[in-house]
Amino acid sequence: MSAATASPTIDRRDGRDPGPARRAWAGPVAAGLTLTLTGAAGAAALVTAYRRAEWGQDGQFSWFWAGMLVFSLPAAYWAIRRDSSARLRLAVLVGYACFTYLPKLLRNPAGPLYHDEYAHWGQSRDIVIDGLLFQQNSIVRVIGDYPGLHATVASLATLTGVTVWQAALFVLILAHVLLTLGVAVLAGQLWPDPRVAAAAAIVYSLNSSFLYFDTQFGYESLAIGVLVWALACGMLAIRAVSTRARLGWAALFVPFTVAITATHHLTAIWLTGILGLIALACTIFRAPARTAWALTVTAGASVSMWMAAVSPRTGTYLEPYLGRALDQFGGMAGGDSGGRTLFNQSVAPWWEQQAAFLAPGVALLAVIGAGVLWWRRRRVTDRLTRAASGAMLLLAALYFPATLLILTPSGAEGARRSWAFSYLGIAVVTAPLIIALLDRARRRISVSAIFLLATCTLMMVGNTAAGMNPSYRFPGPPVFGSDTRAATPELLAASEWLRETAGRGARLVADRYSGLIFGSYGEQEPTTGSESFPAYQLYLARPGGPMPPALMEQLRTWRFEYLVVDRRMAEQVPDIKIYFENNEPIPHDGRPGFTRSQLTKFDTMPWLIKVYDGPHIAIYRFDFGSQGQNLHMGAP
Prior knowledge:
Blueprint: H1 3-6, H2 19-54, H3 60-80, H4 86-107, H5 115-130, H6 148-160, H7 164-188, H8 194-204, H9 219-239, H10 243-261, H11 265-284, H12 290-309, H13 314-333, H14 350-376, H15 383-397, H16 399-405, H17 411-440, H18 447-467, H19 470-473, H20 489-502, E1 507-509, H21 512-520, E2 525-527, H22 537-540, H23 549-557, E3 562-566, H24 596-600, E4 608-613, E5 617-622
Parallel strand pairs: 1-2, 1-3
Antiparallel strand pairs: 3-5, 4-5
Helix pairs in contact: 2-3, 2-4, 3-4, 3-18, 4-7, 5-6, 5-21, 6-7, 7-8, 7-9, 8-17, 9-10, 9-11, 9-12, 10-12, 11-12, 11-15, 13-17, 14-15, 14-17, 14-18, 15-17, 16-17, 17-18
Protein name: Glycosyltransferase RgtA/B/C/D-like domain-containing protein
Keywords: Membrane, Transmembrane, Transmembrane helix
Region (Disordered): 1-22
């Protein structure tokens, strides 16, 4: 090596080589400057995207993804970079988790917006007001049985004096950060390379629920973060050599499991299932299995006892989604119509839609590659790593049949909710493959690195597009039949009027979107109908025709007080193709499901008194004992 080549690394004044010391601080400084600048640019681009969408201008999708990727790709580079220190990786992952919460935070910083957010916000607020847990919820009837999130938020709001929504944001941002770090910790229990752990966290962030669904004010947003830490504690307990360490980690696993059980039913069930896969794999590969089975039994017992003692109706609440989805999928396989057309009339750009279709295929190729790598390394890894990573491969495989359920109206929601859990397997098993590909590259900027960053871009864009409709992701003018744009000034005014005149807790019948507002801001108890209580038959009845006697008896016996009618149901088609509930017997053929006369017939019914009339919203008070009139007739 020539003197000219060597001279930059030598301090001529004292002959010392400053290279190592300079590199020690150069990396964090460069990372800090890079991520600060890209983070500011990304946040500005996200704000621009939302403003353009709100003002009806084009370009919101391009601005949004430019903002996301300008920070996410450099963050992925610094997190997986070989020379990054442990502290730098930790800082990058924390910053990445905070930045990826920004889209949801900017979407609705001041109050609830999504369907389930109205329910959880109202439930938490009621705990602050009344101090009672396990109260029934009129929007999502089962969430009152799982008060973990609501009790946490209500306690924080009460102790600090902040609003319920502000307390919820603190809890959810913290949960989002802990979820990201927890995935890295879990992956670190299988492979010692910290780059694999960081890669697993980045890959997991590409799932369709990460940016919007698991950042909303919902019980899964908190529970899934606790799940990854429970699994990490479980792996530490299984791997522990001494009895004292094993009992210590198991003791920490138990409160995590109980917290999950008291917070979200599906997360608790998935925890039990994942532990069962790990225990089964440990048995097959002759790894330590006794502790794994004990943890599985503990989680299963926690779920079973809670559902038996506290929430016995959880099974009946969950069963229709899967049962009807399988029926519909079977009908589609037999040639019947009734399936969903993906991106039907969607305003999402073509490249988002194409990315959504390509993402499952790319994920499949990645899992196959991870399986090949797992097989090749099976003799050089310890039995527990081999067994646990094999279990994660099985968990990853569950992602693909769930994507087929997205084609059914009833299964679409369940498919989306399963992806956040099955993607945990994809993240853990594909992370070693990513690092292996990078290690094969000899140049700093390699074809492998560029390919992986491009794949990361494709997966983030495609999965997010598949997981959330544009109306959920972007602001805009009020749209009939959209949960996120249901809070029109008219509906808010009507709900406030009813609360001021009738107080809280009045039972009323309403459509899905009116029910959201009356049940949250209005603090009432709406019902939108079900198979056992088909309240929507009131709206479907023909003018002058009979009302169903059984329904009328239910309304009278259960002391319903008000009926809310949104006349837009006769003028427009709901944006998400639902008027009342998922399995309603109402035609969805691109035309309004009701006629004007069906919705104005209530003006002439003797057992209804109109008490509020707006441009679109009318409120009627039930008067079942009015002068002995025939309650079964649609007109006097």
